[in-house]
């Protein structure tokens, strides 16, 4: 059973009782904004060992324009078969070559499958890394050359100095 990571915005995944108008067992519709498809595909990253989780989150933060919190969900692929999800490995587009090798796409998604994926993600573990920690993680990854400095936006680099 594989574990995967998808960047999210944590506030979109709050459920009852945090959101009092939301019926128990339901997700906010805004959670689907974190599952925006491109060509009916969604990108995610496989966690092969415990060190991958933080490394993937750092690499995703390195793709941004600014230093900010990073929220993500970790979930298992056990329900992928039930949802009939087509999974294909492809090269990611972060400044970390190792993380790029952990990239997968869910292909040819239907609306039903995206809704099912939302439930899988909702049941996963949700994590927030605070802004100050993100800044430290990025600076360290650049210093030890886990991140390719040339692939990081200048706007982000200028905020790390």
Coarse shape: globular
Instruction: Give the percentage of residues in beta strands.
Output: 15-25%
Domains (count):
1
Structural class label: alpha+beta
Unreliable spans? none
**Number of DSSP strands?**
6
Major β-sheet profile: 6 strands, antiparallel
C-alpha Rg, in Å? 16 Å
Strand order of the largest sheet: 4-5-2-1-3-6
Mean pLDDT metric? 95
Describe the 3D structure.
- The structure is a single chain.
- The chain is an alpha+beta fold.
- It has one domain (3-160).
- It is 32% helix and 20% strand.
- It contains 6 helices and 6 strands, in the order ββαβαβαβαβαα.
- It has helices at 50-61, 80-83, 97-100, 111-122, 131-143, 154-160; strands at 3-8, 42-47, 70-76, 86-89, 103-107, 125-129.
- Strands 4-5-2-1-3-6 form a 6-stranded antiparallel beta sheet, sandwiched between helices.
- The model has no long low-confidence stretch (mean pLDDT 95).
Outline the secondary-structure elements.
Blueprint lengths: L2 E6 L33 E6 L2 H12 L8 E7 L3 H4 L2 E4 L7 H4 L2 E5 L3 H12 L2 E5 L1 H13 L10 H7 L1
Compact overview of the structure:
With 161 residues, this protein is α+β, with helices and mostly antiparallel strands. The chain has helices spanning 50-61, 80-83, 97-100, 111-122, 131-143, 154-160; strands at residues 3-8, 42-47, 70-76, 86-89, 103-107, 125-129. The longest helix has 13 residues, at 131-143.
